[in-house]
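Might I ask for a little of your time on a matter of protein folding? The record follows directly beneath this note:
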Amino acid sequence: MTHRSPPWGALVRLSAISIALVGVLTALALLNWQARPQTPYFVDHPLGYAEIGVNVALEQYDAEALASTLDRLRAADVRWLRQRFPWDQIEPTPGRFEWATWDRIVRAASERGFRMIAVLDGSPAWARRPEDAENPLAPPRERADFGRFVAAFVERYGDRLDVYQIWDEPNIAPHWGARPIDPLDYLGLLREGYYQIKARDPHALVLLAALAPNDEPGGANMSDLAFLDRLYALGGRAWFDVVAAQPYGFDSGPDASDGFGRAAALRAVMERHGDGTTPVWAVSFGWNALPDDWRGRPSIWGQVDEATQAAYLREAVRRARREWAWMGPMLWATLQPALPVDDPYWGFALWSPDGTPRLAWDALIEMTAPPAVVGLGVYRPNHPALRYEGDWRVTPEAADIGRTGDRLVIPFWGRGIALQIRRGPYWAYLTVTIDGQPAPALPRDPDGRAYLVLYGPEPRSDIVDLAVDLPLAEHEAVIEATGGWGQWALERVIVRGDAPPRWLWIRHVLGVLALSLGGAALWSLRRGDGPAALAALRALSHRLDGWAARVPEWVQAAVALSLGLIVVLAPFSGLRLIAFAALAIALWFRLDLLPPLILLYLPFHLRAVPLEGRAFSVPELGILLGTGILIARQIMREGTGRERARFFRGPLDDLVAAFVGIAILATLAAEERDVAWRELRTVIIEPALFYLILTRGAGAVGRRLSPWPTVDAFIVGAVLASVIGLGQYTTGAGVIEAEGVRRVRALYGSPNNLALYLDRAIPMALAVAMLGQGWRRRFYAPAVILILAACLLTFSKGAWLLGLPLSIVTLIGLRMWMARGIRREGRRPELVGLGVLALIGLALVPFLRTPRFAHLLDFTSGTGFFRLRLWQSAWRMVLDHPWLGVGPDNFLYQYRSRYVLPDAWAELNLSHPHNIVLDLWTRLGLGGLVIGGWLFVRAAIMGVQLLRDGREETYPLVMGILAALTAVVAHGLIDNSIFLVDLGFVWMMMLGLLTILWSGRPISPKPAG
C-alpha cells in the first residue's frame, strides 16, 4: 500500500518553500539595489568649489585704513567678505537711517570686486520688547519693522550686494532675547526678510542664520542640529537658499567628526529631509590660537598654537574641497575683530592689532588658489581643476569636443569617477585611462584600450562609470576624444567616495539558494501538492462535454477555424468581440485545436488584432484564451487531489519552467525594465504557455494526444508565408534589392527573419515527404518545394550555408541509422535528401560572385569583420554580467551605448549577438545558458530514444523535429535562434511535440533494426 502524505503536510511544505523563495528573491533584489553606485547630489556654487573669504568689521577703520585693508585682502586674492550691518545702528529711530558709515564700506568693497555677505541683525531699542530693552541682539517685537528695514537696505545696496544673511545665531542666548529659543518664531522672521529681499532682487541669495554649534536641548540654547531639523520639519526650506554653518574646530583637528566636522552633521540633517541640492557655506570657521603670554580672558573655543592653527586651516580647506562638494565659500572667523585687545576672540585674528600677519594669514593666502584636484561630488565642466587640451569649447553647462585627439585630464580624489554625457545619433567615443591604465569600468577594444561610446538613438543624458572601487586617494583620468564635435557631449564630472559593499558575494550565495528553492518548489509540484478540485464545476463540465461530444469533429474544427478567421479579419470591433467569445466557447470543448490555430496564423503575428482599444497579436490572444481555459479545466479534472494537481509531468516540463524562472530573474536585474518585461512576456512566457497548452490541452478536454494537427497547421502556415514571398519575387513588390540579389520577406520586416522561420519548417516537411504515408506524403512533397524556394529566395547566408544543409545532413544521417528498421523505401529517401542538398548548392553557384556571397570568408571587412567584433563585445558583456546577463531585449541598449567596439560603429543597432550561446548568456546569464542548452540536449536524447523504441509511423516526425532543432542551433551560430516571437513558439512546438510522442511511446523498448 502506497503511503500518501496528508494534504496539510503538502500545503505546509509548498508554502514554506514558496515563502523562503520569495524572501530570498526579495533579499537579492535589495542587495542589487544597494550595490548600485549612488550619484551624489549636484550642488551649484559660483565657481564650483569652496572659495576662501574672511569675516571683517570694516566699520572700525577710517577711510585710509579701510582702503589699505581692502587692498591688502584683494592682493591676497581673498574673494569673500562677511560684514555685519547692525539694524540698531542704521535705524536708531523709526524711519531715520544713518547710512554714511555703511555707504563707505559697501562702495569700497564693491569697487575692488569683493563679494560680501551682509549679515542683517540687531534690533534698535524702539523695536524691541520691553524685556529686551538692554539687549541689541534680541529680535524685534514686530516682524514687519524688520521687513521695512530689510526693504530699505536692499533698495539702497541691491545693485552692489546680492547675498544676505537673516539674523545671526538665533539658537543661543542672547541672540534671541529674554525668551526660550523658538525655531518657529525665527522662521517667521526669516520669511519676512526673504520676501522683502526677493521682491527687490529675485536673483539675490538668502542665507539662513548662522547657527552656533552646541548640544543643548532647548530653553536659552538649542543644538544647531535640532534647530535646523525643526526648521525643515516646519517647512522652512522654502525661505532660504543657503544653510550657513559655523564649524569651529575647538580642540579637535579638521578630520574629526565633531568640531569642524559639525558641517557634515548639519548636512546629514538636510539630506534626511530630502534636501541634497542646497549648499552649505562655512560663514565662520577657525581655531583659536592665543599667544603664550596671553593675560586676557581664556578662550571658550579651545586652544591651539599658531603653527597648528595655520596647518589646520590648510587641512580644513583641503578636506572640504575633497569630501564636501556641497560646501560653498569658507570664511575664516575674523581678520581683526572690533573688540578690545584682551578679548579672547583675537585668538582667531589673521592680523594682530597692529596689522602684523600671523601664520594663519599665510596659510589662508595659500588656499585662495583654485583646487588642482576635484573631490567627491558633481562638477560642472568648467571646474578649474579640469585641464583641457586641444580645441574644446567649455561653458558651465557643457563642454564640446573640438576635433579628434582632444584630451581632458581630470585629477580627482575618491574611489570612483563617472561622466554625465549627452548621447545622440552621432558616432563618437572617448578613450579613457585611469592612472595610466585602461579605465576598469569600461569595455576594451582589441588593443586593450578602454572606451566610452557616445552614440544613442535619440538625445539623452546618461551617467557612465569610468572606474569604481579604487583606493581612496588621488587619481588621474585622461580622456581622449574621437569624433563628436558640435555635440556638447560632456555635461558633468562625478566623483564617488563610497566603496562597494564587501558583502556582495552574498548575492551569489542567494542566487544559488534561489535556484535551489525553485527546484524544490518544482519537486513539490511533481509530488502532487496543490489545490483540490471543485466538485460542482466538475459535474457541470461533464454535462457540457457530453453535449459537445455529439458534434462531429470536422464540424468543431471548421467552426474554430472560421471563428479564428473572423477574429483576425473582422472589419469592426463588435463582430470581432462576438467571434472571440464564440471561439472561447468552442475551445472550451476542443482546447487541442488552439495550438494548430496559433501555428496557422504564426507567420502573420506582426499584424496586430485591435480589441477594445488595445492591439494584440494572434499568438497572444490565443495564449490568453488557452491559459484561462486550461487552468479552469485543470481545476475541474476528475480524480484525487494529487492526480488533479499533477500539472507538470512531461520529461521537459521542469526545464521549461526553470527556463522561465531564470528569465524572470534576469528581467528583474535588467536596466531597461520596460523592454525586458515585454520580451519576457511575448518571447519566453507565452511560448512556454503554448508548450503547456500543446501538451495538456487534449488531455484537459478528454481527448487523445496527437501531434499531427499541430504539425499540419505549422506546415500550412509556412506554405502561406512562402506563397506570399514567391508572389513578392514575381511582382517585385515588397522585395529588398541589395548586394546584387532580390530578397523576399513575405510579411516579415527582414528576409533573414523569414528564413529563420522557414528553415525550421523545411526539415520537418521533408522528413514526412520522404518517409511519410498516405495523403500527408502527397501534400508535404509540394509543400517542401514551395517552402524551400521561398527560403532560398531570402538569400539568407545562415539558411543557405548552415541551417538547411546541416538539418538535411542530420535527416539523412538519422535515416541511414534507422535504415535497418525501415526497409520498404530502399535508398530513395537518402537520395531525395542528397538531391535537396545538391539543389541548394547549385542554386548558390550563380550568386557566388554577387556582393552578397563574394566575401564570405573575408573577416577583415564587411559582415565577417563586424560579426567578429560583435562577438568580442558580447563576450565582454558576458564577463561583466555573468550570472543574470543584461536581461531580455537589453542587448541593444548595452551594446550600442557601452560595448560596441570603436571600429564597429557602422553597425550599432544590433539587438542580439548573432550567436546562440552568447545570446542565451547575455540575455539570461549562466543559468539561462545551462538550462537552455540542456533543453536542446535533453530533446535530442528524447528524440533518439523515440527512434529506438517509438512507433514506426512517428519516425518521420521525430526525424524532422531533430533535424529542425539542428537548424535552430546551426543557423543560430550566426543569427537569432529562439528569441523572436515566432521562433520562440516554434521551439516550444518542437519540445511539445517530443513530449506528446514520448507520452505515447510503447512501454517496452523496441530496438532499432
User: Anything to note?
Assistant: Residues 8-37+500-529 form one domain. Residues 1-12, 529-540, 639-648, 1002-1009 have pLDDT under 50 and may be disordered.
